[in-house]
Amino acid sequence: MPEAVPIEVRGLVKRYGELVAVDDVDLTVEPGDVFGYLGPNGAGKTTSLRMMLGLIRPTAGSVRIFGRDPQLSVKALEGVAGFVEAPSFYPYLSGRENLRLFAAFDGDGAAARIEESLATVGLAERAKDRVGGYSHGMRQRLGIAAALLRRPRLLMLDEPATGLDPGGMRDMRDLIRELSASGMTVLLSSHLLAEVEEVCNRVAIVRTGRVVYQGSLVDLRAQAGEDYVLRTTEDGVARRVAEIQAGVTAVRPRPEGGLTFKAEGEDAVSALSLALTESGALIRELSPRHASLEDLFFSLTEGDERVETRRESGEGGGDPAARAKEAA
Amino acid sequence: MNPGVLTIYRWELRKLRAQKRTYLGLGAAAIVPIIFVVALVTQSGQPNDVAFGRYLHDTGLAVPLVLLLFGSVWMFPLITALVAGDIVAAEDRNDTLKTILTRSVERHQVFAGKALATFTYAILAIAVTGAVALVAGILASGFNSIISLSGTRVSATEGLGLVGLSLLFYLVPILAIASIGLLFSTVFRNSAAAIVGTLMFSLLVQLIGILPGLGGIHPYLLSTQFNAWQGFLRSPVDWTPVIRALWVCAIYAVPALIAAVLVFLRRDVAGD
Ligand SMILES: Nc1ncnc2c1ncn2[C@@H]1O[C@H](COP(=O)(O)OP(=O)(O)OP(=O)(O)O)[C@@H](O)[C@H]1O
Ligand SMILES: [Mg+2]
To answer: What pLDDT is recorded for position A225?
Structure first.
């Protein structure tokens, strides 16, 4: 039997009255993935995670966690841990006491891992205090400790870095890398592309409930293409040359002077520089602009004018952008 | 090995032990009899119009019995509702359902553990009132024989047994109230609303009971069942109210529990 897929979501829909919080989402998380579930506020990340954890009923569609349906029995969550939104605890019990309760509800020797988990998240010293007096970041850490008790094969975290100080964020990233290196599959939701970029190998980008991109970060980067900035002695001429140059798209004047364009590879850039020289527009600056992944993220999730640009430029390769346009 | 209802039940008790409201309820259950007895010894009169009221100065055994009568109006329903109305809603208040339901316990097990813990608390509350009332009553009025409702004299030891039996049977309507509290707690997801709702329900049923022209349904009201224990204090024992209390209370409790379970099993656990 092939290894069961950690998360397989098909046609998932959640409706709240008129509002479609999750709209026909398909998602596959493979073993060993660190999967980033990326989207702006209200995109439906938490709602999707709740359905994957069996906390709310899908309006339509199916969720399989290691091949099992979490709606039917909590047994589907064997080897799965995580939390949605801020992790929550019994405020009148201490941190350690909360973990004892969870461990009792886990069975399977979880109680023996309490001290180790507390140490991993750096909470050992405050574990005797009531959770009611914990800071936000401490609760976040306790949430991770609570998840680790289950010794999961799949970890689902909803915006785990929210409210952490910079050191805490770094610790979180290190921990996720470490867990992933030990063979754990991780699903991580986030608003922040940068956060996801650092730890994830695959991403799904959601926007108002719909997945507008799903795949590896490498592919996303490739699809984003690279933006270039060009300044010449003759910008008008340069623009006309660039517009007819093969492999060069999305040529636009910059308000501060010069042009921006996208290139389908470095050869196209070299060819353009030659063409420019021949036409008499002499190059003052020709440089790649690195914010393009961020740009693509915004265009995918906001659907402003830039989507239009991407769509033109993305003929063939810019499929996700085209889908973003559809969604708008 | 997977954890079961027993594990959850134990932790529910532990959570109750860590919460103020538990002590508030049990404290009230202990203090009310004490205040009552203090008032009794400083006063020469007694409530003659209530069953056993006229024996309050003769025997301590009358104290718990009179308290059972007074307590059924709102005190015991309130003490019960204090925990029953909170035990599910508290998980909504702390948003902890998502935490425990993503461990290895099924929803029905969580509910069963909570129901058992609620019943345990309610039983404890009645036991506390009974014990404190007996001790305080015996200190104040002595451990003497008592006159049954049929007019026969019952020895002190036999009377003690009957008081124990009455307290035990009083649990039948109390557990029905607890079940209704659990339902409200599950449906309202708000402890104040559930507690007030349970109390309102209990008072409303009593109100229906005193309406003229509705005498026919009187034996089937939940409030009436709070007096069923009096059947034990007749000689011979009058089983009619006792048997009726058992099934009438079941009619209130069982559908409430089933409805609560169904709602709890099906509900969305979203933070709203
Ligand atoms: N219980 C609910 N009742 C009604 N609407 C809801 C409910 N839960 C979520 N929604 C709606 O569903 C949409 C998606 O919400 P969700 O919390 O999943 O977003 P999110 O991607 O997690 O956002 P954020 O980044 O802000 O956490 C929002 O429009 C929200 O208002
Ligand atoms: Mg969210």
So the answer is: 65
A133: its two tokens: 């007096």
Model-level ipTM above the cut of 0.95: no
Longest distance between any two alpha carbons in chain A, whole Å = 77
**Which residues of chain A does CATH 3.30.70.100 include?**
225-290
Q: What is the pTM of this model?
A: 0.86
Closest-CA residue to B65 (of B7, B176, B146):
B146
Fold of A225-290: Alpha-Beta Plaits (3.30.70)
- Average pLDDT of each block of 10 consecutive residues along chain A (328 residues)? 84 95 95 94 94 96 96 93 93 96 93 95 94 93 94 94 86 91 94 86 92 86 76 90 88 87 85 91 84 71 48 38 42
Residue A66 has φ and ψ, to the nearest 5°, of 45, 40
A129 touches chain B (CB under 8 A): no
Instruction: Kindly state the helix (H) or strand (E) to which residue B118 belongs, with its residue range.
Output: helix B107-141
| Secondary structure (3-state) at B244 | helix
The domain locations on chain B are: 5-266
Chain A residues in contact with B100 by the CB 8 A cut-off are 101-102, 105
Phi-psi region at A90: left, alpha or beta (left = phi > 0; alpha = psi -120 to 50):
beta
Distance CA A216, CA A202 (A): 4
A74 contacts B106? CB cut-off 8 A: yes
Partners of residue A85 in chain B, C-beta under 8 Å: 95, 98, 271
Question: Please, which residues have CB within 8 angstroms of residue A125's CB and are 6 or more apart in sequence?
Answer: none
Q: What is the CATH number of domain A7-221?
A: 3.40.50.300
Asked if B102 lies within 8 A of A53 by C-beta distance, the reply is: yes
Beta strand A7-16 with A19-29 is antiparallel
CA angle A17, A22, A28 (to 5 degrees): 155
